[in-house]
Amino acid sequence: VSTSAQRTTEELVAAAHAGQAAATGRLLSRVERGGEACRVVARVVFALGGSAYTVGVTGPPGAGKSTLTGRLVGALRARDDRVAVLAIDPTSPYSGGAILGDRVRMLDHSHDPGVFIRSMATRGHLGGLAFAAPEAVRVLDAVGFPWILLETVGVGQAELDVSRTADTTVVVLNPGWGDDVQTAKAGLLEIADIFVINKADRPGADEARADLESMLDAGSWPGADWRPPILETVASCGNGVEALLESVERHRAWLSRDGRLASERSGRLCREIESIVALRLQEQAHEVLARSGAESLRTRVEERQLDTWTAADAVLAELARL
Ligand SMILES: Nc1nc2c(ncn2[C@@H]2O[C@H](COP(=O)(O)OP(=O)(O)OP(=O)(O)O)[C@@H](O)[C@H]2O)c(=O)[nH]1
Ligand SMILES: [Mg+2]
C-alpha cells in the first residue's frame, strides 16, 4: 500500500539523494518524532540502504569527540568521500546546549554540500535513541552517504546501545582517564574496536596507554583475533587523525573478511527486532492488565488467586489469541 504519507517520504528521499540537505533533515525529524511518522520513513528507506559504513565515536564528556569527528570529516573529504555526522546525546531529551556547541566546532564543514551534520535527541521517541539512532543511520545510508559518523556522549548503558549501531566503534579517552573512578572499564572493552588517547599533547598519555594495554591483556575483547589498537591523537591540531582513519579502514577490512560484517549487521538487526517486539508486547500486556472486572487478571492477582508468573503466562496466552 502506498499511502500519500509514503509518497511524500519517497519524494523526500529522492530529493535528499539528489543532495538537498533540507530533505534529509526533514526525514530525520520524522525519525526523531517517532510513532507512525517514523514507521513510514523506516519502511521506505530500509530497502535502499546497506552500502554505508558507520563509525561510532564515543567516550566521556569533553574527551574531544566532536573535534576528532570534525577532523575525520576533513580526512574523508580530502578523499572526496561524502560524509554524514550524527551527534547524539542520550542523556538529554532536547537538542541544543552542548550539542549546539558541537555544531559550532564542526562549522568548518557546514558549507560543504558533501557533509551533512545533525544532532539528535530522544524527544518523544518511544524506546529513546536505541530505536532512533539505527533508523537515522538507515536514512543517511539510503540517501547516499558512504560514511556515517555517530558521536555519542558518555560511558553508560545508553551509549552502549547506540554504539551497537556502528560497524566500528572508536572509544576516545584522555591522559588520566584511569584515575576516574566513574569510568566503566569493563564496558569500554565490550564496545571498543579502536581506542584513542586524545589530548596526547598533555602529560600522562604513556600511563593511559599502559592502563589500556593491561586491561586488554587481562580481558577478552569481542573479536578474538582483533585486538583493539591504541592510538594517540591531538585532535585540536589534527595529529594522528590520518592514522586513525587507516585504523578504521583496517578494522573494516578485517570485518569484511569471512562474512563477519554481514553477520554482525544481521545480528544487530535481529537485536533491534527483538527490542521492538519486547516494547510492543509490554504495551499490549499493559493494556490487558489495565482491564478491570471481577474475572479480570488484575483482580485475580489482587486477590492472590494467581501469582505473577502464572498471570504472565495468561497475558501471553491472551495476546496470542488477538
Ligand atoms: N589540549 C587539547 N585539547 C583538545 C584536544 N582535542 C580537543 N580539545 C579541546 O577539548 C575541549 C572539548 O572538545 P570537544 O571536541 O568538544 O569534546 P567532546 O568529547 O565532543 O565533548 P562533549 O560532546 O561535550 O562530550 C575543547 O575545548 C577542545 O578544543 C587535544 O587533542 N588537545
Ligand atoms: Mg561533542
Please give a structural write-up.
- This protein has a seven-stranded parallel beta sheet, with helices on both faces.
- It has helices at 4-17, 21-33, 35-46, 65-78, 98-105, 129-142, 157-163, 185-191, 205-218, 241-256, 260-290, 297-302, 308-321, and strands at 53-59, 83-88, 115-120, 147-153, 168-173, 194-198, 230-233.
- Helix content is 53%, strand content 13%.
- Helix 1 (4-17) crosses helix 2 (21-33), helix 3 (35-46) runs parallel beside helix 6 and helix 4 (65-78) packs across helix 10.
- With 322 residues, the chain is of the alpha/beta class.
- The mean pLDDT is 86.
- The chain has 13 helices and seven strands.
- The longest helix has 31 residues, at 260-290.
- The relative contact order is 0.11.
- The structure holds guanosine-5'-triphosphate and magnesium ion (MG).
- Residues 61-67, 98, 102, 105, 153, 198-199, 201-202, 234-236 line the site of guanosine-5'-triphosphate.
Outline of this structure?
This protein is α/β, with parallel strands linked by helices and about 325 residues long. The chain has helices at about 5-15, 20-35, 35-45, 65-80, 100-105, 130-140, 155-165, 185-190, 205-220, 240-255, 260-290, 295-300, 310-320; strands at about 55-60, 85-90, 115-120, 145-155, 170-175, 195-200, 230-235.
